[in-house]
Design a protein that fits this description.
The protein is of the alpha/beta class and 320 residues long. It has a single domain, classed as Rossmann fold (3-Layer(aba) Sandwich). 39% of the residues lie in helices and 18% in strands. Helix 2 crosses helix 13. The protein is globular, with a radius of gyration of 19 Å. It binds guanosine-5'-diphosphate and calcium ion (CA). The site of calcium ion has 7 residues, from helix 3.
């Protein structure tokens, strides 16, 4: 091998990546991509628009879903902790509290810890780092912002709902007519976020819900500015045959006026992405999508260990 080629390999053999992530879809992408970008070469930037005070504790639903998944302890539906008990929730119900939003006992302990740390003046990013380290997760995860940023949903009858009331209590059945990311305009990126994006060779947008999980991250002006500067931004589609695997992504995108299928994902990320990865089952859409974005198709299911590993190998061959 001549020196020039060796030099080239040296440049590309150690790339850094940033993954913008929501909850379940993002956690699955994080689990796969940490096989490609080991240890410090991957930084996760997590959505905090879903954060909410529930039963008196600060719930960071998406950050915890990612942490539990990377720790290998996630519950059967992708959130919460596997095998958790619900004794505290049963007691709350006995006390007459509506516990539709059920936090398992161990999950509740994480939230109690977070609430205590925040009320004694620590930042969300510090708390997240503490939980990451305690759960022995090797990948760095930063909240998009330490400032309050809350996704609010306006439904067809005109009512504005806090995110978790729409999502959990009402089971995301309402038609969404408008979304607000309250506080985003004045939110500063958490420490390290802009530095990680700037240093990254590649920014990846997880197959998370575009308006509900990714847009609240991008709504932080400093983050949007940093991502727009990047040449290589790769989004992974959350859609299969135009539908989300779980949750309301396709319905919310439709009711916000985005085109159906991956054309909607392209529209949601217009001006932001250089590459879009769609599922192999939707490869026929390749012909219909007119865009300057480079489109790739492969199996984008990431649920099992085999699927996760296979996607990591494909991603490495294609981008890293
Ligand atoms: P939430 O915050 O827990 O609602 O989760 P996210 O916003 O991170 O992700 C929700 C999206 O993940 C849904 O639209 C799903 O279609 C998508 N999703 C879930 N599992 C997979 C998967 O294995 N592969 C892909 N490509 N998308 C997935
Ligand atoms: Ca979420």
């Amino acid at each position: 091998m001549n020196e020039a080629i060796q030099g080239l390999n040296a440049t590309y053999s150690n790339p850094f990546a940033v993954l913008l992530t929501g909850g379940v879809g993002g956690a699955r992408a994080a689990r796969s991509l940490r096989e490609v970008f080991a240890g410090e070469r991957l930084t996760l930037i997590g959505n905090v628009g879903d954060d909410e005070s529930v039963h008196g504790v600060h719930v960071s639903a998406d950050l915890d879903t990612v942490l539990y998944t990377l720790a290998g302890i996630e519950g059967p539906h992708g959130w919460g902790i596997a095998g958790d008990s619900f004794i505290a929730m049963d007691q709350l119900e006995k006390l007459g509290v509506d516990a539709t939003f059920r936090l398992g006992d161990r999950d509740l302990a994480t939230c109690l810890f977070r609430t205590g740390m925040l009320s004694s003046g620590h930042r969300l990013s510090e708390v997240t780092e503490h939980v990451r380290s305690a759960l022995d997760v090797g990948t760095r995860i930063l909240p998009a912002t330490d400032d309050p940023l809350r996704t609010r949903i306006r439904i067809a009858d005109g009512t504005w709902l806090p995110f978790q009331e729409y999502f959990v209590e009402r089971g995301h059945r309402d038609r969404v007519v408008e979304i607000e990311y309250a506080g985003a305009e004045h939110a500063l990126p958490a420490p390290g976020v802009v530095e990680a994006i700037t240093a990254a060779d590649i920014v990846v947008i997880a197959p998370s819900n575009p308006p509900l999980s990714i847009e609240p991250i991008m709504a932080v002006p400093g983050i949007r500015r940093a991502v727009i500067e990047k040449d290589r931004v790769v989004a992974i589609s959350p859609l299969f045959g135009g539908k989300a695997l779980k949750g309301p992504a396709d319905r919310v995108m439709e009711s916000l006026g985005l085109p159906p299928g991956n054309a909607g994902v392209l529209a949601a990320y217009e001006g932001l992405i250089s590459n879009l990865v769609i599922d192999i089952g939707d490869a026929a859409e390749l012909k219909t999508l007119s865009t300057s974005v480079e489109i790739h198709s492969t199996n984008t299911r990431l649920g099992s260990d085999d699927e996760s590993r296979r996607f990591a190998n494909w991603f490495k061959e294609t981008f890293a």
